[in-house]
């Protein structure tokens, strides 16, 4: 190796130090994955060279046979991995190997618990494959040169995986990267051809370029050392181009880990080849766990795009809607141009057709999972449910299909788990029920105990309980499912339709007429606080509730808009009272107008609290309540 110049020692980013420590300790039980991760990175480097060489053929520098080589030295206790891909400049090495330039890194670090098993899952989701080298090596040397740069612009990066690393400029004749792992004491098993071959076959057989190992042959006459020949040990063909019947589940799983940089198996996958007007292959995966940056809408997402098996783009976002941003996979088109760009993808009508078909394929895959593996789907929903709830607003064409995949808590459960699907809800609906009833709120305890549910409990009607921040917004885009309309039980004048008997309706009309005087007194007492006052058909146990006007924003939406600094339109609730409740009967008999007004306001504030709202004037409520308590104790 040539003389090193411009040598300097730099410190690792704090997050890298933490990750190195966690990688070494959390993943030690599965040490052999280091080779899978390094081969995966090398494959990406070759893909990037292929793509850049489309516009700049000179980057290939005459070396068009792209490959990865893995070798070992038993005496020196080293494993070496070399690729002739895109390579790195000095700046690239410092940036890519010394820091983690990922949005959400700080959030990721907060999620680390110190529990090795849990943290290993998180590390896998974060995708920091290079650092896995330090699981088996106490020193790592990286020699690299970026394609297209001069031989004198090579870089040597070296570290013992502790606090710092060294970087120097070197001469390197060939483009690409060579990584030398100096194995720790006790890790000699990896300096062995048979062991390396098995690891490659196990984890990297799907890599679509040759992975070569040295094959020792007898020395020719007069030679001191035997000649070294290289042999390809993997299948070296693109997995998605092979017939599904020839591919084992283990191969699909390992390919997922390669493209997703995840350590866990996927939950499900779908492999499909389309021929006809459009020709493309797709291999789509549903991860088992949500990535740490799932809710950062600007985070990298999308499928790997190939055109005629040539890698073109990572994270091509145009093939799936945003609510399916957790889907990983590959799409390989025969119809797109090799010089396609993100801007072109956004305007190409071919992409619209592919996006529509791929979206339906993902939704079909999730339907199949929900039907055949309900327990696994329950896990999927816990991880990705809130993102799926973005779907009806974004994807009108598939609104009914998405709605069928949604899961909710309901009054038929007692633990708040979101496990009830709309089809299941309708299957056990009451005879004559032509509505899907729901109630939104901040917490499960609040909605479960809401007075709005009293009449539904009495009649045994199931109500969906929606407590995610996104739920009221979601329901503004869901008007019906399977021709049954949604009804917010806290909104408007509740009409149970066929679920109320003619006797019930007639009795309600008679009570409303009998209480017209009380309605007028309450309107006068509550004044500007309410939009209207009426006799309630919802209550059986509570004295009063506040209903929301048909066109008004619910409490959830108001709080979301206020938190984001947006102006919220003024609206007033409707005060409904239970005419048979003892407190209402006493109120009706109250002769003093002042005392009537005070008691009416206490009932109004209590109804607001029961709905999860905050009081406009808490001090006035406390004063009125204290006054009432003094009177009662006198």
TrEMBL record:
The protein, known as: Chaperone protein HtpG
The protein's assembly and partners: Homodimer.
Keyword presence, Nucleotide-binding: yes
Location of the region described as A in the Swiss-Prot/TrEMBL record: 1-342
Matches recorded under Gene3D superfamilies: 3.30.230.80, 3.40.50.11260, Heat shock protein 90, C-terminal domain, Histidine kinase-like ATPase, C-terminal domain
Lineage: Bacteria, Pseudomonadati, Pseudomonadota, Gammaproteobacteria, Pseudomonadales
Gene: htpG
Subcellular localization: Cytoplasm
Stretches assigned to the Histidine kinase/HSP90-like ATPase domain: 30-187
């Amino acid at each position: 190796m040539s003389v090193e110049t411009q040598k300097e020692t730099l410190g690792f980013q704090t997050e890298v130090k933490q990750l190195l420590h966690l990688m070494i300790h959390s993943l030690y039980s599965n040490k052999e994955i280091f080779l899978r991760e390094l081969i995966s990175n090398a494959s990406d480097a070759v893909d990037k060279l292929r793509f850049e060489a489309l516009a700049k053929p000179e980057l290939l520098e005459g070396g068009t046979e792209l490959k990865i080589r893995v070798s070992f030295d038993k005496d020196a206790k080293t494993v070496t991995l070399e690729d002739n891909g895109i390579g790195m400049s000095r700046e690239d090495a410092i940036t890519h190997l010394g820091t983690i330039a990922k949005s959400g890194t700080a959030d990721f670090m907060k999620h680390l618990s110190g529990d090795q098993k849990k943290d290993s899952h998180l590390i896998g989701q974060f995708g920091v494959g290079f650092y896995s080298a330090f699981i088996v090596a106490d020193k790592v040397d990286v020699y690299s040169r970026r394609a297209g740069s001069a031989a004198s612009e090579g870089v040597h990066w070296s570290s013992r995986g502790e606090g710092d690393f060294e970087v120097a400029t070197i001469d390197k004749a060939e483009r690409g990267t060579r990584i030398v792992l100096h194995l720790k004491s006790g890790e000699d098993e990896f300096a062995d051809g048979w062991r390396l071959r098995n690891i490659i076959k196990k984890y990297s057989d799907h890599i679509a370029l040759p992975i070569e190992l040295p094959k020792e042959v007898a020395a020719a006459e007069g030679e001191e050392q035997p000649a070294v020949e290289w042999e390809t040990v993997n299948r070296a063909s693109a997995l998605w181009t092979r017939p599904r019947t020839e591919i084992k589940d283990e191969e699909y799983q390992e390919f997922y880990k390669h493209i997703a940089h995840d350590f866990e198996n996927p939950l499900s996958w779908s492999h499909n080849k389309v021929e006809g007007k459009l020709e493309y292959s797709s291999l789509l995966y549903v991860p088992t766990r949500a990535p740490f940056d799932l809710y950062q809408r600007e985070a990298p997402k999308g499928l790997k795009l190939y055109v005629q098996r040539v890698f073109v783009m990572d994270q091509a976002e145009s093939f799936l809607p945003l609510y399916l941003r957790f889907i990983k996979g590959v799409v390989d088109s025969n119809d797109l141009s090799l010089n396609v760009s993100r801007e072109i993808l956004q305007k190409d009508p071919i992409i619209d057709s592919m996006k529509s078909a791929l979206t339906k394929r993902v939704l079909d895959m999730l339907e199949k999972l929900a039907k055949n593996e309900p327990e696994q789907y329950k896990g999927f929903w816990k991880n990705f449910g809130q993102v799926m709830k973005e779907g009806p607003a974004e994807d009108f064409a598939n609104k009914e299909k998405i709605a069928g995949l949604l899961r909710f808590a309901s009054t038929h459960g007692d633990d708040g788990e979101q496990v009830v699907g709309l089809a299941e809800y309708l299957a056990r609906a009451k005879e004559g029920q032509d509505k899907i009833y729901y109630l939104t709120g901040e917490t499960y305890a609040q909605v479960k105990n809401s007075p709005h549910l009293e009449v539904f409990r009495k009649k045994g009607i199931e109500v969906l309980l929606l407590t995610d921040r996104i739920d009221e917004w979601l329901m503004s885009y869901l008007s019906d499912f399977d021709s049954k309309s949604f009804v917010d039980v806290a909104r408007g004048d509740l009409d149970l339709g066929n679920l109320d008997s003619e006797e019930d309706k007639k009795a309600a009309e008679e009570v409303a007429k009998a209480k017209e005087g009380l309605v007028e007194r309450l309107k006068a007492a509550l004044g500007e606080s309410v939009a209207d006052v009426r006799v309630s058909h919802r209550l059986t146990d509570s004295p009063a509730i506040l209903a929301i006007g048909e066109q008004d924003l619910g409490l959830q939406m108001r709080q979301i808009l206020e938190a984001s600094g947006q102006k919220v339109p003024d609206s007033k609730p409707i005060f409904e009272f239970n005419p048979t409740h003892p407190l209402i009967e006493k109120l009706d008999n109250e002769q003093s107008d002042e005392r009537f007004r005070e008691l009416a306001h206490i009932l109004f504030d209590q109804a607001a609290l029961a709905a999860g709202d905050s009081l406009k004037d808490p001090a006035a409520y406390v004063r009125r309540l204290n006054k009432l308590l003094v009177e009662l104790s006198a």
